[in-house]
Amino acid sequence: MTKLSLVVGAAALAAVAVYAVPALTQSGPRQQLEAPAPRPLPSTPAAVPSSMGQVQLTFAPVVKRVIPAVVNVYARTVTQVQANPFFNDPFFSQFFGQTPEMRQRVQQSLGSGVIVRPDGIILTNNHVVAGGTDIVVALSDKREFKARVLLSDARIDLAVLKIDPGSERLPVVPFADSDRVQVGDLVLAVGDPFGVGQTVTMGIVSALARTQISAGDHQFFIQTDAAINPGNSGGALVTTDGRLAGINTAIVSRSGGNVGIGFAIPANLARRVVEGVDGGKVSTVAQLAWVGASGQPVTSDIAKSLGLPRPGGVLIKDVYSGGPLARAGIKSGEVLQSVDGNAVDDMASLNYRTATRRPGDVVKMRVAAGSAVREVSVTLALPPENPPREAVTIAGRNPLTGARVVNLSPAVATELQSDVMAKGVAVLSVGNTGFAGRYGFQPGDIIRSVNGMAINRTGDLVRILNGANSWDMVIERGGRRLALSVDG
Prior knowledge:
By secondary structure, this protein is of the alpha+beta class. The protein has four domains: about 70-160, Beta Barrel (Thrombin, subunit H), CATH 2.40.10.10; about 180-275, Trypsin-like serine proteases (Thrombin, subunit H, Beta Barrel), CATH 2.40.10.10; about 295-380, PDZ domain (Pdz3 Domain), CATH 2.30.42.10; about 390-485, PDZ domain (Pdz3 Domain, Roll). It contains ten helices and 25 strands. Strand 17 (about 360-370) and strand 18 (about 370-380) form a beta hairpin. The longest helix is centred in the middle third of the chain and has 9 residues, at about 265-275. The radius of gyration is 28 Å and the shape is globular.
């Protein structure tokens, strides 16, 4: 990620007294008006500090508790690249049919992490460890441990690591309730920017509920001006009482340097992710509750057309049959305004509010239909995997060779951050070999048809691909339909 450093400026605030002056009438005599004399400010008697506590203001005691639980995370990634760039061209490969010569490229990434359980459970960002083959965690006392990745979820950019400290109980940073964090609160950012060593910076919470920062369906950030730079990713944003308010994640910067706009994933979502880790089982997605619907923000024009007094909330477009909202009686065209008293203004904020609760929890949603407003109890659930995935890796010689495809279901659509109402066959991954990556297929692509035949299940796709020598394909990507024609 790109990250920043903090510049703190002091600004003088000038006090201006404003007085109301009586209006003069045209016919009355001209009068001399004098503004009343301002009242003197109460004076504070000057005194010489009598103790060190009156002279020294410091966050050192908080930092001393937090620093031992913030770690460095080193990820080593080995990738296969083709020695000859001509083999990247599918046209060249079709004619010459040669196996490309591959070579290894080693990449290193540096980030930070936070110990949140004394048995060695560590939170960091997914982008710090994504694709890493060797993950090493260095503690503040210079000890190093091999780490296992228990969970790495690109949707929320969080990863959970596990190191083995034996019988030792490691220091931790306890979670704060991030819903209690307020704009203006002092916060400290702790991490290892640029690999220079543990660094602490201070700032304030600049804003809450930022949802337009990335394309993630659950992104809901705390904004801060505390310095965040490359290497701070996965580090701790802590309150002045030493609790974890968030995981430092991203910045806005044209230069890559600090401009005072950094973002952290709130602790309430991070805590829910840690709670959902299933022992030593490895997962690529967190088990997050969902609402079973798609929607859009309520703008001023939409609010006016619906008879709402002001914009705000999420206009429900489609409701999944049998999903949480459908079972609660919420219909398409209604507006969700809040979850447990917390306002929601788009699908990202709605998804965040439900993801911080457990599947099976009951939440109160405020729902508006025109001028009528009601409160509805909604029982949250996991997105269902219906139909079953029936995952297949495409073999043979065709444009999708090497791709892994699955049947679309709400569970798969949530993982791929695509429309939960979509049906058909989706590309889960394109692999490092085969033609799929070379032809530009991407995870999340939906295969709509091949040679004019609709694709509903993975078995249909395999049968049609293997039974043809040329392929006319229609692919849906981000709501757009693309065409691909390939001769055998």
